Amino acid sequence: MKLLKKVSYIVFALFIMLVELSVPYKPQDNVDANSMTLRQLKAKLAEEEAELQANKNKQNQTQAEINASKKKIEQITEEKTEIAKEVDDLTSEIETLNKEIVGMNVEIEDIIKYYQISEIGDSAELEYLFSAEDFTDFIYRMAITEQLTEYNDNKIKEYNKKISENESKTKELANKRKELNNKEAELEKYISSQQTSLKKTMDGALDIEDEIKATKKQVDLYENTYKCKLDETIDECTAGKLPADTAFYRPIVSGRVSSNYGKRTYKLNGRWTSDFHYGLDFSGSHGQNVYASANGVVAAIFKKTSCGGNMVYINHLVNGKKYTTGYYHLQNYTVKVGDVVSSSTVIGHQGGSPKYETWDGCSTGSHVHFTISTGNWGNEFRSYSGFIARNFNPRNVLNAPALGGSFTNRTRKY
Ligand SMILES: [Zn+2]
Questions:
Q1: Per-residue pLDDT tens for 115-136?
Q2: Which residues surround ligand 1, an ion (CB under 5 A)?
Q3: Domain boundary assignment for the chain
Q4: pLDDT exceeding 90 applies to what percent of the chain?
Q5: Rounded to two decimals, what is the model's pTM?
Q6: I need a surface site. Which of 188, 207, 300, 326 has the fewest CB within 10 A?
Q7: How many angstroms is it from 279 CA to the middle of ligand 1?
Q8: Which of 284, 253, 256, 250 is nearest to 406 (CA)?
Q9: How far is the CA of 203 from the centre of ligand 1 (A)?
């Protein structure tokens, strides 16, 4: 009984120690992970500006690599032209040699015929062969014929050797040409991959430079309009300034769902392409009003980007949760960063037509790309990649008909 008591004391002591040990370490920095202070935001901005410089250097390096590869291709093309010329020369040399061999064969046959037919072949004159003078003459002629034949045989052998040499040289050159073709194809592939790394192909993708400009506008808004203190969190500072709402509405009055959220496969420039579509596409009449989907504050605007055109991002507080909505391929925008908007505010007009919005390479027809993420631009994230990391299917909060379905108002439930 005593022992049991002792054991239970020990167990209890160990338990207390474990509890002590498992109490989480209290971090020095106890700032809400979802909201940063103005000071932190400014520090992030400085970091991102340094990154921008690094990225620019990297882009320059990529461009230099592309140029070097292009130069290599030029050299290969030159080499190929030289090889083609060499092959031509060798081919015509072979032809000439073959002709010469044929000519020599004819010549020697003629010689043999001449000597053999006139002196040996004629049976009527056979008796003369036995005269000493004629016999000597016969032997002499035979010797000449033999010598000539031997000479020509040697010459033909020599020509044949040259022909086979030329043929192997031609083969060698053909192999070299094949090698050069492969090398050229490799370089072209490399160039196109490098060019893709420079070019944005994802709908809405941004330059770091543009993202930094957007962050600067946010800092300016917090600092000068909202008068945020340096060590106050942005959430604290913007409380009450972000108008609350209870629902999201479709951004246009009349349209059709032309593309769903998620992975999709489609034809681009005649080629099957696959990507993840981070939004819902609403096609509709070009130039119609585009509205804020819910009450909020305009957080970022990107003008005439090469993949997304004019884009507006709005910060929201819907049912107590922070969101950001994005509207791409706009013909124009009628708001500015910091504007307080309601769900009936016109923020711009529908664009996306390659005929009019010629700067936008990522739209094939008039439509609005509507996209949504959790958190606010300029607080929880400050970049396209940050936005995409928090992106979700708009259908989770927005009513829209099925793919291909049309609507004629902003609120009807489907
Ligand atoms: Zn889209």
A1: 665 554 444 445 555 567 777 7
A2: 279, 281, 369
A3: 61-198, 208-407
A4: 46
A5: 0.65
A6: 188
A7: 6
A8: 256
A9: 7
What is the distance, to the nearest Å, from the Cα of residue 127 to the centroid of all Cα atoms in its chain?
Answer: 96
For residue 232, give the DSSP letter: S
- Cα 248 to ligand 1 centroid, rounded to whole Å: 18
- What pLDDT score does 197 carry? 66
CATH architecture of 61-198: Orthogonal Bundle (1.10)
Q: Could you read off the pLDDT of 158-180 as tens digits, one per residue? A: 888 888 888 888 898 888 889 88
pLDDT digits (tens, 9 = 90+) for 196-252: 766 666 778 888 889 999 999 999 999 999 999 999 999 999 999 999 999 999 999
DSSP codes, 106-169: HHHHHHHHHHIIIIII-GGGGGGGGSHHHHHHHHHHHHHHHHHHHHHHHHHHHHHHHHHHHHHH
Tokens 């083609």 -> residue: 84
d(CA 226, CA 338): 10
The answer regarding whether domain 208-407 maps to CATH 2.130.10.10 reads no
Give 368 Cα–ligand 1 centroid separation in angstroms.
7
> Rounded to the nearest whole angstrom, what is the distance from the C-alpha of residue 286 to the centroid of ligand 1?
15
- The predicted-structure confidence for 24-37, as pLDDT tens digits, reads as follows 333 333 333 568 99
pLDDT at 403 over 90: yes
- Which class for 333: exposed (0-12), middle (13-18), buried (19 or more C-beta within 10 A)? buried
Instruction: Give pLDDT tens digits for 204-213.
Output: 888 888 999 9
**Distance from the alpha carbon of residue 56 to the mean position of ligand 1, in angstroms:** 28
Dist. CA 212 → ligand 1 center (Å): 24
